[in-house]
Amino acid sequence: METQKQKKSFGQWIKTSVTIRMLMVGILILVLLIPLSYIKNLIQERSIRQEQTVVNDINQKWGNEVLFYGPVLKIPYQTHKIKKIWDEKTKSYLEEDIITLHNAYFFPNLLDIKANVSTDTLKRGIYKSPVYTSDMKINGSFTTPSFEIKDVAEEDILWDKSTIIVNSTNLKGIKSNLQLQLGPENYILQSKYSKDSYTNTLETKFLQEKSWPKDKTVDFSLDLIINGSNQLKFIPVGKETNVAITSDWESPKFDGNYLPDPKTKSITEKGFKANWKVLQVNREFEQEFFGELPYINSSAFGVQFIVPVDDYQKSERTAKYGYLVIALTFLVFFLIQTISKINIHPFQYLMIGLALTMFYTLLISISEHSSFLYAYLIAGTSVVLLISIYSRAILKSLKFMALISASLTALYAFIFVIIQLEDYALLVGSIGLFIILGTIMMVSRKIDWGQ
Predict the structure, then answer these.
(1) Fewer Cβ atoms within 10 A, N terminus or C terminus of the chain?
(2) What are the CA-CA distances from residue 40 to residues 30, 34, 108, 361 (Å)?
(3) Helix (H/G/I), strand (E/B), else coil: 335
(4) Are residues 349 and 435 in the same domain?
(5) Transmembrane stretches, by residue range (predicted)?
(6) Is 396 within a domain?
């Protein structure tokens, strides 16, 4: 008889023990991490699909990233090598002049680029990608090139075979006839095979004598309209390079080897403006090259047109707070259960946790067909209503149902504010969590932890 009483008292202690309930809630939270991890993987998978398939396909058809390199003056020249050949007839050595043709490349003395960039967003189904059209005005000048370093005689410089070349990564996106004005003459830039797999070469026909910078400085100008995506960059080939970019894109990322002048940089909701000035002494390469053009793409600078936080990034950031949402919701139910002496079965905790995880699948699926705001409102409202109605059934109290509903609404609203922020997300999140912790500490003072 006494043993039965002991068993009954032990079983009653198991049901009423605060410590046991805390352990069960903790175990359930750990179990719910499994579906949460699957949901995060789903979001990442959908994001990768957008990037690798749809966005890349849109960009390839519209125009990929743009890297502009040039214009560059290309002048062929000859070198001589005397070779002695033994002649059996004369029984003496004969000298033969072996002529080899080389190319010299000279960068402009001044390069001035003004780019007006208008942006748009292309969509395919549920996916979208930001693209742009850049209207560029390119001006500058070439000074008389020097061949002293190679000790080339004047008569070996083939001025009549000189050309102008321009390199770009995106010929497909060019939407204007490329007509370069050099001095008093105009020249059409045409595609030419390039060994560089990253950039494509455009080259003029042989320059006329009036355009040679042989004895004087020669000015040039080029208008270029080009479609692109992701980024717009330039290589500072001028002895002095000035680049000015204006755009209606409100979230640029300035990238590359050089940053814009902070005094001229301006970013507003209507777009941005930025100016760069790069001198020869700021670069890691010289003004002329003999033989082949070097790979200097690492010196490029410009701007990336990015979406700071797209819908997939927002969903992924929201899912990272899933552990917090489940833990705090369970904690609210645990405090209500402990203070009011209402019994909540572990199965009921599990159902509440699964309802909370459904929020993220609803969010990602709805946001692919609507805006993130509407998706968040629909998913959040659905989950709050479901858990509120369920809590009314298990807690038997309108007061507790209202408390659960208000707590979940405040929590989801708090997380929505955090994921919208960029620079202040950590600060606001830390303050919010501090307030939540303080509230829980005050409420938990009424619990008898000796049970």
Answers:
(1) N
(2) 16, 10, 52, 9
(3) helix
(4) yes
(5) 20-39, 321-340, 347-366, 372-393, 400-419, 425-443
(6) yes
Neighbours of 156 (CB within 10 A): 17
Show the domain range for 212: 65-307
Domain boundary among 272, 307, 342: 307
Identify whether the C-beta of residue 71 lies closer than 8 Å to the C-beta of residue 220.
yes
The reply to whether 244 and 333 lie within a common domain is no
Domain count, the chain: 2
Q: Phi first, then psi: what are they for 97, rounded to 5°?
A: -90, 110
Side by side, the strands of the sheet bearing 266-268 are 185-188, 179-182, 218-229, 127-142, 110-124, 240-247, 271-279, 266-268
- The pLDDT tens digits for 207-263 are 998 988 988 899 999 999 998 888 899 999 999 999 999 999 888 888 888 889 888
pLDDT digits (tens, 9 = 90+) for 105-160: 999 999 999 999 998 877 765 566 788 999 999 999 999 998 888 888 888 889 99
Whether residues 141 and 33 share a domain: the answer is no
Report the sign of the C-alpha dihedral through residues 149, 150, 151, 154, in that order.
negative
Q: Say whether both 326 and 299 belong to one domain.
A: no
The verdict on residue 451 lying in a domain is: no
Element holding 348 (H helix, E strand)? helix 346-367
Residue 57 lies in a domain: no
Are 219 and 213 a contacting pair, CB within 8 Å? Answer: no
Low-confidence ranges of the chain (pLDDT < 50): 1-2, 4-8, 10-11, 13-14
Alpha carbon distance 235, 293 (integer Å)? 13
